[in-house]
Amino acid sequence: MAEMPMLKFVDRAQAYPGKRDADARTQDFQEIADRYAVPAAEAQAGRCSQCGVPYCSVHCPLHNHIPDWLRLTAEGRLREAYELSNATSTMPEICGRICPQDRLCEGNCVIEFSGHGAVTIGSVEKFITDTAWAEGWVEPVAVGRSRGQSVAVIGAGPAGLTAAEYLRGHGYDVHVYDRHDRAGGLLTYGIPGFKLEKPVVMRRVDRLKAAGIVFHEGFAVGEDASLDELRARHDAVLIATGVYKARQVEVPGADGAVAALDFLTASNRKGFGDAVAAFDDGTLDAAGRRVVVIGGGDTAMDCVRTAIRQGAASVKCLYRRDRANMPGSQREVANAEEEGAEFVWLSAPLAIEAGTVRASRMRLGRPDASGRRSPERDPGGDVAIEADLVIKALGFDAEELPTLWGSPDLSVSRWGTVLVDGTTLMTSLDGVFAAGDIVRGASLVVWAIRDGRDVAASMHKWLKAKARAEKVAA
C-alpha cells in the first residue's frame, strides 16, 4: 500500500524557495525568490494537515480550494492541481507572488498554530501555475456563445480584468477602457518587478486579448468620452478604476515630496524601456540621492526597495508607529532591511525643507479603531534627517469621479468611493456597476479579484433580465 503523502508537517520542516543574496538582488529588478523544483514543491505541499475545517481557505478572499490542490501537488498530479487552483482565481500565480499570505492563508494555517510553521501556500500556488504556463496547460479563455450584448469595463486592473474574463466567458462583447498605455493597472505600473515581473502580467493580458476582449488603451473617461457616452454605446458598464489619488503629508514643504505612485510608475516604465522625462531629468531617479520615504505600508516598502535598486546614497523609512504596529507585511520589512534600508520608527514629519526632513519623536498611546495603538507626539525631542528626495507613501484615495466624468448623478461616499447596492453591486445609475478598490477603498489585489468575480456574476444576471425584457417589449 502506497504511503500517504500528506500530514508530513511533524518530520518535514517548513522551507520556502531560496532568496537571492541581498547584494546581488539589489542590482536588478528581477524577482528575489527562486521557484520550487518539483520535488521541493511536492514535499512542502505534503506538509498540509488536510484540516476538516480549512482555515486557510476560510481566510482567503477567493476561498481557494487550498488543501485540495496541495494534496494533488503532493501526489504529483500537477495538471489537476493547476485546474483546481484556476477554478476560483483568474490570477493564481500573481496572488502567489504578491498576496500577504502571512496575514491571510498562511497566517491562519492550523499547523502554524501548532508551532510547526505554516504550509508555504503562496510559493506552491506560484509554482503550480508557473509550471502550467511552462508546460502549455494554460488554455485560452472559453468564450461563450455570443449574446449580442456588450459591456464596457473602465479600468484594466485586477478587478476589471477578472470581470472581463468572466463576462467574455458568458458570451458578451467586452471592451476594456484604461487611461494607461498598457493594461494591468497597479500590477503593471504600481508593483515593482522584484515582486512581480512584468511578463507575468502581460501574458495574462495577452490571453484576454486573444479571447476577443477589446482593449482601448490610453483612453481617459471624461476626456475621450463621458460616462454617459459609454452607457449609450454598451448594454452595461463596470467602474473598476481603483484609487490613485495620493494622500497628502500635512506639513510645511509637503509640495516638495514626490507621490509614491509617480515614483513607482516612472521606475516601471523605465523597465519597459519607455522614455520618462521626469526620470531622465533626475526628478524621479533616486541614484546618488539621500532618500526618505514617509509611510509604513507595502507601497512604502516598494518605494524603499526601488530606491535602493536605483542606486540611492541612503534610504530611510520614516514611520510614526513601531514595527509591531505597522500595516505593511513583515516579510517586506525584512527584505528591505536585508537590502540596506534603515527604519526610523516612532517618527513623524514636521516639515520638509531643502535637504532635510524635520521629524518629531512619537510614542504610542491607546489603541484606535483599527486596534493599533495611536501615535502621539513625544516631548523628548525632534530629529533632522538629511534628504535629497522625499517620497510620500501614505496610501491612496478615490478621485472625484462624478466631476471628472461629468456624472453628477453617480453617488459616492464621503471618501469619494462609489456607492453600490450591497447585493447587486449596481451604482446609483441604472446598468452601471462598480467593483474593487473604487468601492472598498485601497485594499489587496486578491480582494479586487474576488470583487471582479462577484460583479461579473451580478452583471450577467442583470443583462439576461434586460435581454428578456427587450424581447418581450419587441
Topology (SSEs and partners):
Layout: H1 22-25, H2 38-45, H3 55-58, H4 66-74, H5 78-86, H6 92-98, H7 110-113, H8 121-135, E1 150-154, H9 158-169, E2 173-178, H10 186-189, H11 198-210, E3 214-217, H12 227-233, E4 236-239, E5 245-246, E6 258-259, H13 260-272, H14 277-280, E7 290-294, H15 298-309, E8 314-318, H16 330-338, E9 342-344, E10 347-353, E11 356-367, E12 373-386, E13 389-392, E14 396-397, H17 401-404, E15 432-434, H18 437-440, H19 445-473
Helix pairs in contact: 2-4, 4-5, 5-8, 6-8, 9-19, 13-15, 15-16
How would a textbook summarize the main sheet? Answer: 5 strands, parallel
Number of domains: 3
Strand content: 15-25%
Looking at CATH, the homologous superfamily of the largest domain is FAD/NAD(P)-binding domain
Structure in words:
The protein has 19 helices and 15 strands. By secondary structure, it is an alpha/beta fold. The protein folds into 3 domains: 114 residues, Alpha-helical ferredoxin (Fumarate Reductase Iron-sulfur Protein, Chain B, domain 2, Orthogonal Bundle), CATH 1.10.1060.10; 170 residues, FAD/NAD(P)-binding domain (3-Layer(bba) Sandwich); 145 residues, 3-Layer(bba) Sandwich (FAD/NAD(P)-binding domain). It has a 5-stranded parallel sheet with strand order 3-2-1-4-15, with helices on both faces. Strands 6-13-7-8-9 form a 5-stranded parallel sheet. The protein has a 3-stranded antiparallel sheet with strand order 10-11-12, with no helix packed on it. α5 packs across α8.
